[in-house]
Amino acid sequence: MAAVSLRLGDLVWGKLGRYPPWPGKIVNPPKDLKKPRGKKCFFVKFFGTEDHAWIKVEQLKPYHPHKEEMIKINKGKRFQQAVDAVEEFLRKTKGKDQASSHNSSEEKNRRNSSEERGKQSAGEEKRKASLSEGKVKKGTGEGKKRVSSVSSERGSKSPLKRAQDQSPRKRGRPPKDEKDLTIPESSTVKRVMTGTVAGFKWPPSVSEPVKDSDPHFHHFLLSQTEKPAVCYQAITKKLKVCEEETGSTSIQAADSTAVNGSITPTDKKIGFLGLGLMGSGIVSNLLKMGHTVTVWNRTAEKCDLFIQEGARLGRTPAEVVSTCDITFACVSDPKAAKDLVLGPSGVLQGIRPGKCYVDMSTVDADTVTELAQVIVSRGGRFLEAPVSGNQQLSNDGMLVILAAGDRGLYEDCSSCFQAMGKTSFFLGEVGNAAKMMLIVNMVQGSFMATIAEGLTLAQVTGQSQQTLLDILNQGQLASIFLDQKCQNILQGNFKPDFYLKYIQKDLRLAIALGDSVNHPTPMAAAANEVYKRAKALDQSDNDMSAVYRAYIH
Hints:
Layout: E1 11-16, E2 19-26, E3 41-46, E4 52-56, E5 60-62, H1 67-73, H2 77-138, H3 141-154, H4 159-166, H5 176-179, H6 188-194, E6 218-224, E7 230-236, E8 249-252, H7 256-259, E9 270-273, H8 277-288, E10 293-296, H9 304-308, E11 312-313, H10 317-323, E12 326-329, H11 334-342, H12 347-350, E13 356-359, H13 365-377, E14 381-384, E15 387-388, H14 391-395, E16 399-405, H15 407-412, H16 414-420, E17 421-426, H17 432-460, H18 465-473, H19 480-491, H20 500-516, H21 522-536, H22 549-552
Parallel strand pairs: 9-10, 9-12, 10-11, 12-13, 13-14, 16-17
Antiparallel strand pairs: 1-2, 1-5, 2-3, 3-4, 6-7, 6-8, 14-16, 15-16
InterPro entries: 6-PGluconate_DH-like_C_sf, 6PGD_dom2, 6PGDH_NADP-bd, GLYR1_PWWP, HIBADH-like_NADP-bd, HIBADH-related_NP60_sf, NAD(P)-bd_dom_sf, PWWP_dom
Organism: Pomatostomus ruficeps (Chestnut-crowned babbler)
Subcellular location: Chromosome; Nucleus
């Protein structure tokens, strides 16, 4: 079967990692998003999702020829919504093209009519000029002298030429107001579907913002500087770069659901230490995406499942680090993070020049800075990369990764971050990611305590808790987090998705961060006291939503 040529604007089916082929459109990539080396691929935005990725050519199929085939094999509700989004896009495009075609026809008719009127006007002026010349020839000498005088006053142009110059329109040209009329361009989809496709050509300048009227996609760009100041912006329709006075440059924030389908796993050997709620999901996704992974856990039995999935077993942290190129770690708190590196048979004993260590634990900036110093002192490379999310997001490969430290190591971890997360941010020097992660979890923990407080207040005042949830879900606070945590409370199901003891730890560290810079954190302090009470009620190993029980006891 002959290969099908693809080009910018094509509607396609693209493979989305663990997901079935998904409908999307080939578009210009965001500013500074580099094309992967060594393989021909296109940048695709997928309908009905927030996903966008570089996809290999062999993983793409034209939309229309394969539409019926894909619809037959995929029956999911989300998939159908994506197909509906494509059809809606095509309907809007067709309407715009018809309007453009109609406007073009009307413009052509106006131009033809203008030309005809111009011809008629010129003919009439020519006839009048001929009559005038005849009268002059028959006139007296005095008449000739008068005509000569008039001619010299008007200049040397002939009457016909003067008539043409005085005409408001020149022959064969549209009037000034028509000339300035802008005819809408046909959409890229129509151009691709009807035009001859000679092959894909990248736009002459990728520095220009991507222009797209498609409302079905959202993109994330990160603005990062060498200084700690960082900002990002969620962008729809047009991709922009959020810049600061310090002079920022944008880097890609990988959207893993889509990128998973097109990434080539790194050929580096990967190690992973810590198979808790978050670590287990991360390792599973690394293996699914084809990475070579060696695992270690303090409780060795937790490794068995991953050995069955193809992972290798490391006997100690030092052994894992010494046999792997990049070793990740995800443990519970600052003490565990230090013990893992500095303890017997720890990470530090396996570090040699060039070995890489990535700490994904949520700890304070002082702890991560100390760990970075001892790793680098042995010739190793260090990156902090705490993750925002929960067990479910970890299992789904939809974590948000906040990284800081060795920028080259961050880039070396690209395929790993794409496998485990939906977005990754590089935040500059070591310590920045720890600080940002604590602030994020401070907000989340405080919000959870407020939710629990509102539900208990509703109950004691005779209001329906379910109705309160329904109202919140229809308002500006609506979110997956709000709905899930309220459902946990209403159903009395506190199976851990994010341990209560860990959110309390993060609140404590965030308050200490505020104290270190003399910044008040009264809301976080109040929430922390509620979580401490919940821990006293033996809720430490339940989900953070069990903070509700601190209000009812």
